[in-house]
Amino acid sequence: MAIIANSAIACLRAGKTAIGFGVSALRTVAAPQLAKAAGYDWLFIDMEHGAFSVNEATQLCIAALPVGIAPIVRVCAGALDEGTRALDNGAQGIVVPHVDTPEQAKRAAEAFRYPPQGHRSWGGGIAQFGYLPPPVAQAQAEINAETLVVVMIESPEAVANAEAIAAVDGVDVLLFGTSDLTAEMGISGQIGHPRVQDAYRSVGAACARHGKTMGMGGVYDETWAKTYIGMGARFLLGGADQGFIMQAATARAEFLRGLA
Predict the structure, then answer these.
(1) Are 240 and 24 in contact (CB under 8 A)?
(2) pLDDT tens digits along 198-224
(3) pLDDT for the residue 124
(4) Domain chopping of the chain, boundaries
(5) Superfamily of domain 7-151+217-259 in the CATH hierarchy
(6) Mean pLDDT score, 49-68
(7) Which residues belong to the active site?
């Protein structure tokens, strides 16, 4: 069986934006279908802040594959073993938070790529082939090409090291964790602060020089989202299930109470 294509990678290769639907509260296998129906390209399954087990995360991954929305799992900082287990069970990409140095980025890239690009162990990873994989060497090469490795830029140190991080082979996306970045800068919540704008400019330039994609997370204000997308951000976290539900449900309740 042919490999199931990574829809987020397909968007990026076509020069388009890839928009993610964050999942931290939803647990049912309906979540990928709901996200796809709402127009999203990838599912951001959050094992850093959400209370997912590896089993729960991978059930969502397997459910997402036939829907055509890429399951991307964020693990905790340093939990590369959880990332490889997620990839072995249907994930099409891993997000590693709090990557401050090129050495940390290199460890992540090598952990999530099969040789010769990395040192990932072969444990199957065949959900992406509908459990009918080709020979091992071919399967590994195809999975490497359809796996997204995302490192998060969440500190002034990471911004300062962006050039070296972007130069790491096997890293695809440098994703801003804008909220944590502002906290580390001592300007918590000020997502439009000049220092944050400067950070987006410098990281965007580093990505452009090394053929990598800049990502935007933690920016839900439309003005600043437009600004940072204008600076080149194309891997975009659109929001998360809790926020989407609260926003829509609150608006509906206010409307109905207004009628009464």
Answers:
(1) yes
(2) 999 999 999 999 999 999 999 999 999
(3) 74
(4) 7-151+217-259
(5) Phosphoenolpyruvate-binding domains (3.20.20.60)
(6) 96
(7) 49
Of the given ranges (120-129, 153-162, 212-221), which has the lowest mean pLDDT? 120-129
SS3 per residue for the chain: CCCCCCHHHHHHHCCCCEEEEEECCCCCCHHHHHHHHCCCCEEEEECCCCCCCHHHHHHHHHHHHHHCCEEEEECCCCCHHHHHHHHHCCCCEEEECCCCCHHHHHHHHHHCCCCCCCCCCCCCCHHHHCCCCCCHHHHHHHHHHCCEEEEEECCHHHHHCHHHHHCCCCCCEEEEEHHHHHHHHCCCCCCCCHHHHHHHHHHHHHHHHHCCEEEEECCCCHHHHHHHHHCCEEEEEEEEHHHHHHHHHHHHHHHHHHHC
Tokens standing for residue 185: 């800068």
Tens digits of per-residue pLDDT, 77-114? 999 999 999 999 999 999 999 999 999 999 999 999 99
